[in-house]
Each structure stands twice: as structure tokens, then as C-alpha cells.
Amino acid sequence: MNLPPDVLEELLAGYVLGNLEPEELVLVQKLLTEQPELEQVVEELQVSLTGLAFTPLPVMPPVLLQDKIFAEFDQSLQPPKRSLGLLPWFVAGMAAVLALGLGLDNLRVRQLVQDNQVMIALLQQPATRLVALQGIDRTAQASGSLISDANTKKAVLILQNLPALPLGQAYHLWALVDGKPPIAYARFNTTAQAKAVVSIVMPAVLANLTVAHLAITAESVAVADAPKGPKVLLSVELLKS
Amino acid sequence: MKLPDQPSDAQLYQALQQGQKEALTIIYQRYGQIVYGLSLRIVKEPLDAQDVTQEIFVSLWRNARYDPARGSLGSYLTTLTRSRSLDKLRARGRKGKFLERWGTIMVTDTTSPLLEQVASQEQTNRLREAMTQLPDKQRQALEMNYFEGFSQTEIAQQLNVPLGTVKSWSRLGLVKLRQSLKEFFG
Predict the structure, then answer these.
(1) pLDDT in tens, B52-104
(2) Which residues 24-43 of chain A have a CB within 8 Å of chain B?
(3) ipTM attached to this prediction
(4) Helix (H) and strand (E) counts for chain A?
């Protein structure tokens, strides 16, 4: 398909900004498959956006702040003291539920607990669905969850302990629907910290389908139209079956 | 290990992991103002920006998750700072759905060799200049999304324009930012 260059670039900008309509997303994914050279444009747009982080003018922090940070550093060199903490029971309970459900480490759970109002809002969404994912074989340490909201057609994939793939390769999330070949759900890479939090607009094709299970594969190409690489994580229910 | 006269970020980070306070001093001199300036831009409140700055620097030795092989310390710190600052905004209880907001926040949590180039002073100046030359609406749409964590829907509501218009503004704005950096992309 040949789109005018300015239309194409705007679509790719929407892709980077995460503001494509579902049908536009399908089109862009198709174009990226057909024209791998567009990945360079996507990266340049991504870098232009991410570069904004450097544009605010530097500001001198208060001197007291430096003192506080350095005091904390000095303290960290002391032998650690164990403490049970004073979290209210319900927050501690929430942390435990999150740790199990999301497979997150303690630090991340603490950060999420700080945002407990936000978490409560999420959990109150009637159409929110949470699917736990577990690593297999060489990536058995990996774990995570897909949280999806059928009403807004949005989902967030959270993963940890999954090493980043080299440039040009990508992890692919597949929706497994009974009686159909795997459906491309999202593609991503993890960070240097072996983590990923991926915002996903649910593919239109999934709108009226019941997703039975999820699988994540490591593909040797940036965009794969069918799973060819090794499976690295599966939904926990699939592992049990 | 004694630090060289002009230690690299990677050398400083390694020394920090070994408990060398001098390394922390130099890292803070290099990046303290950038981290604090970015956080202040996002959270607006100095006390919140100080909290974020403290958290970012403490995490450098407490979590030790920075990998020098994957990108510059500056990129790592700014990515983390933006993410934590937007978390802070969220925690203040602004209304809106969790997924919408998280979707806005986390998509750029990556580093790339190209970004290392943009992180240089010259390119940063070019990007600053390009932002000032964008039509007001395009700049506003990008800034509200990037620095304030608003979803496109929220921006449309706040500016009282159709959602499609906001999407178009931010897409066009981003296209122009890329064009402004074109010579650096080669």
C-alpha cells in the first residue's frame, strides 16, 4: 500500500504516541511488516519524543536535599536493621495480593501501594480482567500479568525477569482463541532491567472474541505475523491445562 | 579503587556500587539539576520534585538496576524521573482511569543509541527551539501528554475540542520535532 509520505509519517507518529484508532493500528502494523525500513522512522519519532525529557531547563535543587540524599547513602553503608513496618493491615493485604497477582517485586509493590487509590480505581472497573503469566524453559524466572479493560479496549502488560532482546528482535504477545490461529496482540522489548510495562490498544479483531489463553514468544524479527520463535511465557491457566 | 580525573558515568556508577561517596558527589553534580528540573517541570511543586529527586538518586545504589551497556546514565535518570514524577501526579488523586494514565506514562521506557545523541547539549537545544516554533496547539497537546501525563481524551476535554483534533495536533507536532532533528539522525 502506498500512502503519501506525510500521511504515513503522521500515522507513525500516532503509533509512537499511542493514539491510533484500532483500524489505524492494524494498518500501521501491516505497513511495518511489509516495509521493515519504516522501523527507522518509528525509532526517530520515538527518540524525538523521548528527547523531550532533556528539554526542561536544569534547576539547582535545594542544598538540604543533597544533605538528605547523602545522609541516606551514609546510612546504607551501615548494617541493615530489620523492621516489620507499620503498614495498616489492609494495605499490607493489598500488597500481598498484588505481589501474587502481578508477580512484582517488593519495591514495585511498595510503589504501587503508595498509589493505592489508583489501584482501587483499577480494581473497581467492572470489565477489568487480569491474566497471570509465567515463564517457561530458559525463561522460567519471568513472570507478569496482562490487565485488560474490555470497555476502553486498553490493556497493560507488566513483566519482570525477562531479559531484553537485541535490537531488531521483539517479544510478541499472542492471543489464543479456540479454533483460530494465534492472533497478534502486541510486540515489545523489555528494559535493561529485564522489565516491561507495555501499554496496548486491544486489536480490533479481538473485540468480539473470547481470549482463552495468552502466549509470549521471542521472535528473531521486529514484526512477526505468526509465532515462530520459542515460547517464553504462557498464561498460568494454560500451563495448568 | 581510586577514581580517575575525569571519570566516565560507568566508572562512577561502579564506584557507587562499591560504596564510594565521592562517586555519588560527582553523579549528583552532573545530573542533580537535570533530574530536579525535569521533575519540577512535571510535578510543579518543589517539595514533590525534591521527593522524586531523592528517590531517583537513592535508587541508584539501592536498586542498582542501571546497566551502562544499555545506554547513558542521563537517559536512564531522565526516563526514571519522568516516570516517577508522573506517578507522583497520579498519586495526588487526579481523576481519570488508571489504564488510560498508565498507558500514557510507560510507553517510552526505553533507551536507544539514537537517544544518546539527542541527549547531547546541541540536540537538546535544537529540540527546545523546535518546541518553541511549533504552533501553540501542537506544542500544548504534546506537553500536556508528555509532561503532565494527560491522555488524549483528557486533553480534548480540557481544551474543549474533538479527540481527533488533539490526536492530529500531537502527531503533527511530533513529526515536526523529528524533522528538526533530521540532521542528527543521519
Answers:
(1) 999 999 999 887 778 887 778 888 899 899 999 998 888 876 544 444 444 33
(2) 41, 43
(3) 0.82
(4) 8, 8
Please tell me which of the candidates A6, A19, A69 has its beta carbon nearest to residue B54: A69
Cβ contacts (< 8 Å) between B79 and chain A: which residues?
50, 53
For A120-146, what is each residue's pLDDT tens digit? 444 556 667 888 899 998 898 999 988
**Which residues fall within 8 angstroms of residue A31, CB to CB, at 6 or more apart?**
A1, A3, A8, A11, A38
| Sheet arrangement for strand A196-201 | A183-188, A170-176, A213-219, A231-235, A128-135, A143-149, A154-160, A196-201
Burial A5-21 (b: 16+ CB within 10 A, else e): eeebbbbbbbbbbbbbe
Amino acid identity, position A72? E
Look at the pTM and tell me if it is higher than 0.95.
Answer: no
Cβ <8 Å between A55 and B124: yes
Element at A215 (helix H, strand E): strand A213-219
